[in-house]
Design a protein that fits this description.
3-stranded mixed β-sheet; mainly beta; 1 helix; 114 residues; 4-stranded antiparallel β-sheet; Immunoglobulin-like; 12% helix
Length: 114
């Protein structure tokens, strides 16, 4: 009987393990203030693709992410797009901070002589 109890205790620990992680992202402007933005996470390994919108303070909690390497893209009108990769490999939340720079403005002027 004690042998079965030991096996049962090990089996119960396995049920508590998860292959899902969490990404906590903070998007800021050049001054460090929170910035609402669109964040797209893509993983080719598990065919995952999801677009999120950060809260007004620039915070995002992406939960239930299968362990994998993800490409992410952060966009907001008036700011340069930020792209990067992140690896989710633990159930412990991964904290990431992204600072978007102000987009460059191009202007052209055509002068015609008379």
């Amino acid at each position: 009987m004690p042998k079965y109890l030991v096996v049962l205790l090990f089996a119960v620990r396995l049920f508590g393990q998860s292959n899902l992680g969490e990404l906590r992202l903070k998007v800021t402007d050049p001054a460090g203030l929170g910035l609402p933005a669109s964040v797209t996470l893509v993983s080719e390994a598990n065919q995952f693709r999801q677009t999120y919108i950060t809260r007004a303070a620039g915070d995002l909690d992406a939960r239930g992410l299968p362990f994998a390497v993800y490409r992410f893209r952060v966009t907001q009108q008036g700011f340069s797009t930020y792209s990067g990769t992140v690896e989710i490999r633990s159930a412990i939340p991964l904290n990431l901070r992204v600072s978007l720079s102000v987009a460059t403005v191009e202007t052209s002027l055509v002068v015609k002589g008379s």
